[in-house]
Amino acid sequence: MAFDHLKPKPATRITAAWAHALIDVLNLLYGWLASGREDINVDEVLANYGFFNRGVFVEGKPVLKDGDPIAIYDIFDYARDKIAAAIDLARISKLANVYLDGYGNVGVAIYDDRVGLAKEATLSSVSAKLNALDAPLSTRASETTLQSALNRLDELGKLELLGYTTTPLGANASWTSPVDSSLYTRYLCGSAYADQAGTLYVEQSPDGSNWDAVDSFSVAAGAGLKFSVEKVLPYARVRYVNGASDQTVFRLYVYKRLRV
Asked: Residue 217 maps to which CATH number?
């Protein structure tokens, strides 16, 4: 040790010089600790509080302090994947959606039933279906009103672009969006504008080939149209057919509104 010479030996007289040397060593050690200019390694530090003028490191890694800039670009993808996985695990695994038809009846769409989507006619039948599912879902069957059921299971999420075009169509020509087959899509919606009259169709299919359910919207020349159609079948798309005159201006944007 650097200060072994200050250790008194047996039968050695303690002198003033020894005491002064010991005090000098203690002052030197305190100066090192207070100034931070020396590299001193200790096994354990016990303190009520401390002040750090520069960086603080724990196991060789800097500690984040108030006022330090934070960059999330290097952790964003990892955090997003973790959040998405947590949301997926929190979903009701057997139910795609609780929906309301034009007659006020509530229905349940079962994920595994991609063709029929297992329509249920009343809220009581929804409760019966939920009671027949896994035990953790039994609390869902306690919903007694339509509004409380929709508040729990029919939340709307963000918009996601499915397809768009700004290329004018010729007379009687058409444009078709990509097909949406996501189970997380709640509505197909968007806007259309053209300087010539035309017709917009929202088409849905149970199998991706037969477009059995169709909603149509007339688009007047020079008048914009907004549309929103609930997705009730596994496959959906938007198709636009121009009228008898060539377009010079055409804008059509199609979005998917996703469930939370």
From this structure: 2.60.120.260
Query: Do 82 and 146 have their domain in common?
Result: yes
Q: What is the length of the chain?
A: 260
Residue range(s) defining the domain that contains residue 102: 77-153
- Which run of H or of E encompasses 164? strand 156-165
* 7-30 tens-digit pLDDT: 777 777 778 887 888 788 787 776
**Total-model pTM:** 0.43
For residues 94 and 129, membership in a common domain is answered with yes
Q: How far apart are CA 47 and CA 65, in angstroms?
A: 18
Percent of the chain at pLDDT above 90?
Answer: 34
Beta bridge partners of 154: none
Cα separation, 46 vs 174, in Å, equals 76
Burial letters 201-219, b for 16+ CB under 10 A, else e? bbbbbbeeeebeeeeebeb
* Calpha distance 17→40 (Å, rounded): 27
